[in-house]
Amino acid sequence: MVEGLRFESDLASSLKPERPVIVEGICTTRNADGTFNVAPMGPIVDPSLTSFLFRPFQSSTTFANLQATGCGVFHITDDVQLIAQAAVGKVDPRPEMFAAHSIDGAVLADCCRWYEFRVTSVDASASRTEIQTEVVHVGRVRDFFGFNRAKHAVLEAAILATRLHLLTPDDVNAQLERLKVMVEKTAGPKEQAAFEFLQQRIAGVLSQASVSP
Q1: What is this structure's pTM?
Q2: pLDDT tens track for 67-86
Q3: What InterPro entries does UniProt report for this protein, alphabetically (predicted)?
C-alpha cells in the first residue's frame, strides 16, 4: 500500500465514531394532497451516508408521510432561515423544488446535497418511532458555505424552539443569550434575520405559557 494511502486508512479507522452520528438537515415528504412537507430532521447516519435512521414522533407529519409513501428526500443545507422556519412550522414563502430522480419526491432547489431514500423498516412501538432507510440516489446542487458560528447558533436556537415544553423560561432565555453572542459577532443578514425570527417566536410561546391557567 502507498504510504499516503496507508496513513489515510489508519486515520479513517481511528476516527470511526463510537456513538451514533447525527446530521441535521431538511426532510421533504409527500403529503396526502400531493403537496410536500418540509421539516427539519436529524437522522442517525452511517459514515458512508448510505442509510439513515429517522426518529420522528408518531404525531408528526413526517412520520405519517413516510409510513404512507415509504420514501423521502433528506437535504444537507446551510440555509438557516429555512431551518428556522421549518422548525416552528412556518415556511413562507415555500422553497423552490424540483422532482426527485429515483422516488416520488421533491428536492430543494437551493440545497447543498440531497439524498433520496426508501423506507426499509418502521418501528412504531413507542411515541418516538424509528424508521430505517436506504439511500437510493444522491445529488449535489452547490458547495456548502462553510463553518460559521452564527449559522450554528441559529441551528441550536431552532432546536431550542422545539423543546420549550421541556425547559424552564430561565433556561431558555439563558441559552438564547449565549447563542446571541455568536450571532452578533459572526452573522450575516440572513443569519441575523433567522435568529430574530426565532427569538420572537420563542418569546411569544413563553408569554402565552406564563398567562395560561
Answers
A1: 0.87
A2: 999 999 999 999 999 999 99
A3: DUF447_C, DUF447_N, Split_barrel_FMN-bd
